[in-house]
Every structure is written in C-alpha cells, then in structure tokens.
Amino acid sequence: METKKKMQEMANICFDLGFEGCSVVGRVGFSSGGLAMCWKNKMEVRPVGSSQGHIDVEVLFKGQVIRVTGFYGNPDSQFRHFSWDLLRRIAKSVRGPWIVFGDFNELLCIGDKKGGGERPEAQIRRFREAVDECGLQEVEFSRPTFTWKRGTLLERLDRCFINEEAGVLFPRFHEAHVDVGASDHLPLVLFSEGLNFGRKGGWKGLRRFKFEPFWAKEQESKQVVANAWQSNGNQLNDVRAKLAGVSKELQRWNENKFGLIPNKIRQLNKELEQCPFDSSDEVLQNWRNAIVVELNKSLEIEESIWRQRCRINWLQEDDQNTKFFHGFAKGRGRKNRVLGIMSSTGEWIEQETEIQQAFNTHFSQLFTSEGCDHMELVLDTVQRKVTDDMNAKLNKPYVHKIGY
Q: What's CA 107's distance to the chain center, in Å?
C-alpha cells in the first residue's frame, strides 16, 4: 500500500513507532507512491533492493535465510505488466524460502471482486501466469474475503504468496485480514505458526491417527494388531477402546522399529560415506550392502508416507524424488483446515466451540427421524417375502434341546 510520504518523513514515522530498522522508498511527486518496511533489532535483516514497486530483504530465521518481498503492483493497468516482469526478475534471484506480500492491484480470479464492472480476463490471466512462473502459491486466509473497498465495490487486492521451500518451512502459514477501519485497505497480519499460535484457547491442532501403508508389509504389524485387540476386552461394546488401543500400540511399535525416518536416512547416508563402493575389502563391502538394503527400505517407507499425504496414486514404485510430494502435501494441508463455517441460520462463525456445536446440531438433526404419518402406504409397496407359515415358525417359543 502506498505511504504517500517522503523518504525521510516515512523513516521518522517508523522510528517513532518503535522500529529500529527500516527500508523506505519515497513518494513520486506530491501525492503518489512510497513504500516502507520496518523491523525490530531482534531480527537480523539485510536489505537486498527496492524500487517504486517493491522492497526486498533477507531475514535470518533460526539459521535459515528467508527472502521477504513487500510488493506493490502498478495502479495503472496498462503498465501493470512491468510489475509482473519485476516479480519474475526477483524470483530468478531467490535461493531458498520466499515470502511475497502486499497490494498487487490485481485480481487472481473473478471471485476476488464484488460489484462494479467486469475485469478483463486477459488482465487477470497475466497475473496468474506471473504467479505460476515464479513458483508461488497462496496461503490460507481468514475472513473477510475482500481487502479493499470503494463505495459498493469490493476487491481482494492485498494478499500473500510463498514458494515451495517456505511452505515446507512454515506448513501452518496463515494470512489474516484485519478490519481496523482506518483505511480503504485491510491490513494483512501474517502468522508463520498458524492463526492462533500462542493464544489461549486456540486451535489445538491434534493429529488424527493415520494407518501407514508400509506397516502392512511388515509381518510383525499383524501380531501387534492382534495383541492390542485382545488386550482391550472381548465385548462388542469395547470396540472403541480396542481401536484406540490398536492405534496407540501401532504408533509405539512404529517409533521403536522405524524411528524418525528422515533422521534414519541421514544417519544411513553418513554410514554409507564410510564404505567406498570401489573398496576391495570384503567385510567392508558386506557392510555396505547391508546399509544399502536398509537405506532403500527407509527411502521406500518415506516415499510411501508422503504418497499417502498427497494422495498421488500414479507414483511409480521406483521414484524416490520426494521434494515435490513434500510441497504438494504441505500445500494441501494448509487448505484442509476448517477456519470457519456458515451456520444453518446463515451466520458465519469462526470460534472452535461454536463450530463444534454447529456440526453436532447439523448431524443430530440430519440423522433424527421425523416419523411417518402413513407407514401403511409405504409398506404396501414393499413385496412380501415372509409367508404366514414362516412367520408362525419364527414366533414359536425357543426350546433348547440337547442331543445324545
């Protein structure tokens, strides 16, 4: 969003707000342009570049360099293609995680607009193509949907994108639109650890039990299931307890037998480096062969896990490139979370307890019988299968006879 401030004026504002560092682009003329990015000293930030359309910095986060770009799309549609060219140039210089946010002054789809005249499809398509070519993907966001308003016209012009590496680093990355009423644009608040990270009473993020396909290939898993099932009661009403016991035992068995697969793969690769493939030592070669067998097994397990996460069934068994599947699964995970629902009364709700209550109410009503006033009409259309003689035999008192 434009600051419409001179460079020094905007820098002074940043410092007055308590920021120790900033990168500022001054306005053009008297009333247009101007950008600013501010940060605290506790963050290690290195400015990379800037223009009237962007501010680019590198942020050191837990030893990882992250590229962060604040972007401003040209407000004039006939010059907006220069903005997309700029985005492509920045993308070519990125190595590692990349986060891009700002006012792009463009729609990504027709649904990003409400009211006013139609936006040319070619204009929207050029923006989408630039985003795709830069390897960027949207992150989940919370309502309201639109971030800019003028009269009755509503549009989503402000948004955040991340690349694949950033998606793996921040699988719960979230974009919140905050209504502060001080501007015709809504500010974006970005959460790297999820919407309610650190908030009391927020989403718990409990993981549901998932059966891993590679378990079925292990004979030992059958015995684990059998033992867990037998040790949790024998009555039919104990099925829930039995299932919980089986899932718990399978998870414990998985941790003991396979451990953390990525760590195990790294350790096996280190051991493999100590066994040169061209060594003539028979003992060393036997050790190497054993490591290779275990490594291939671990790689197969890792691939099976990520194949299930991203639900790609056409993956060939001998394909061991999991980078794509990490990105795909993380991206799908971000879209699979329920942040809010529309209640039966037409009210949008986002509180966890209210969402749970709405689901309970909906399905309780769905599976509750409302009765039938004319059951005889229904039964008359059903073909009779039990004759009177059969019915008489079925209604006879039960007598237990013991034969010798």
A: 22
